[in-house]
Amino acid sequence: MESIWKSPASLEQLNDMGRNTAAEQLGIVITEVGPDFVRGTVPVDSRTVQPMGRLHGGVSVVLAETLGSMAANMVVDTAQYFCVGQEINANHVRGVSQGLVTGTATPAYIGKTSQVWEIRLEDERGRLTCISRLTIAAVRHGG
């Protein structure tokens, strides 16, 4: 499969972008970039759980938006555009109380000024824990 990236970034570059951000505070790590997806993880630990000991839904959304936003920016010519989130939703379908949760962002639609990304989060056994959809605006620099 041919890559969809117009402004590709290495894992090191993507993880460096997360330094001094919510992603770093929560332990989010970008682990893989494929020809049409970005994948990353978040640990289920004291930084990321809600009072019942399960991964906080808001943390799932942070992981989803982090992956989708990074992917969205790699799909555009970053010399001309930057991408920002406009709307995100999430359906939490299974609680997770330990281990790592892995998210994978894939495009549902890529247009000139808008994008829609689907982000699937799974537990270590490959079971769906959350599915999210992120709408992105591609904004021209100086516009």
**Strand proportion:** 35-45%
Count, helices: 3
What fold name stands as the CATH topology?
Answer: Thiol Ester Dehydrase, Chain A
CATH superfamily placement: Hotdog Thioesterase
Query: Shape, please?
Result: globular
Biggest pleated-sheet summary? 6 strands, antiparallel
Structural class: alpha+beta
* Overall number of structural domains: 1
Please tally the β strands and state the result: 6
Work out the helicity level.
10-25%
Alpha carbon gyration radius: 15 Å
Strand order of the largest sheet: 1-2-4-5-6-3
Notes on the protein architecture:
By secondary structure, the protein is of the alpha+beta class. It has one domain: Thiol Ester Dehydrase, Chain A (Roll), CATH 3.10.129. The chain has three helices and six strands. The chain has a six-stranded antiparallel β-sheet. Strand 4 and strand 5 form a beta hairpin. The longest helix has 19 residues. The mean pLDDT is 97.
SSE layout and pairings?
Layout: H1 11-17, H2 22-26, E1 29-33, E2 38-43, H3 57-75, E3 81-92, E4 100-110, E5 114-122, E6 128-140
Antiparallel strand pairs: 1-2, 2-4, 3-6, 4-5, 5-6
Short description:
It is built from three helices and six strands. It is α+β, with helices and mostly antiparallel strands. It has one domain (11-140): Thiol Ester Dehydrase, Chain A.
Notable characteristics:
6-stranded antiparallel sheet; 143 residues; hydrolase; 3 helices; 22% helix; single chain; alpha+beta
